[in-house]
Amino acid sequence: MVPPSSPTVRAAHLLEDLRSLAVLGPTDAARVLAQLPPASLKAIEAAVPTARLPLALNLEMAEVVYRVAGEAGCRRWGTASLLASLDGFFKPLFLGLTKLMAPSPSLMFKTMPQGWATAYQGCGTIAVEQPVPGQTRLTCVGIAPAMVTPAFLHAVSGTLAAAFEVSRYTGTVTLEPWKPGADEVSWLVTWKKAG
Predict the structure, then answer these.
(1) CA distance 26 to 57
(2) With bands split at pLDDT 50, 70 and 90, how would you rate the model's confidence at 2?
């Protein structure tokens, strides 16, 4: 049982993270699985999808992915995990968002605060601003200090880049300068119409 004040993550998110290791290719996915503690894998695989598990399980997986596949692999994994969520855990939110119009990055990022709050508890809140057309800054205010690592933050960059996989836009996600232990971290997303 997770103490009520401890940061947690929804088990469904961790299950999608595990399935999304496939994006790393069979060799690297196998290396990640081999380096994850068996007790961690068992806790994730045995959990009911709506359960809340310790955030440490998410961070542990991100660190191993980063160690095995580097920043680029961590970003690919983050993208794959969100795409899996759009067909699973976040499907109702995504279908509601796209029912009336084709998704734009701006529209999709407006749902990020709700998505973050659904996946994470005790891990801060997401603020969304649009400094200029074609740009969105997402800031996690009060982020759990344990999340402020290159591994986790680059995986979130990949999560944000998933917007370009489900829309008619291309763009970049830039993790803005941050300091270990910071209580606020930002990503600047810039995009334009594809083609």
Answers:
(1) 22
(2) low
- pLDDT tens-place string over residues 141-180: 999 999 999 999 999 999 999 988 888 889 999 999 998 8
With a CB cutoff of 8 Å and minimum separation 6, the contacts of 14 are 44, 47, 53, 57, 58, 61
Please give the DSSP secondary-structure letter assigned to residue 181.
T
Which residues are 186's β-sheet partners? 139
Give this prediction's pTM: 0.90
Residue 89, CB-side half-sphere exposure with 13 Å CA sphere: 23
Domain residue extents for the chain:
8-193
Rounded distance, CA 164 to CA 65, Å? Answer: 22
Ordered alpha helix ranges (H), 24-54: 26-35, 38-46
Helix 55-86 vs helix 11-19: crossing angle, to nearest 10: 70
The rounded distance, in Å, linking the Cα atoms of 160 and 141 is 17
The answer to whether the CB of 164 falls within 8 A of the CB of 78 is: no
- How far is the C-alpha of 125 from the C-alpha of 123, rounded, in Å? 7
- Of 185, 177, 183, 136, the residue nearest 160 (C-alpha): 136
Q: Which two tokens stand for residue 101?
A: 């119009």
For position 165, what pLDDT does the model report?
85
Fold of the 8-193 domain: H-NOX domain (3.90.1520)
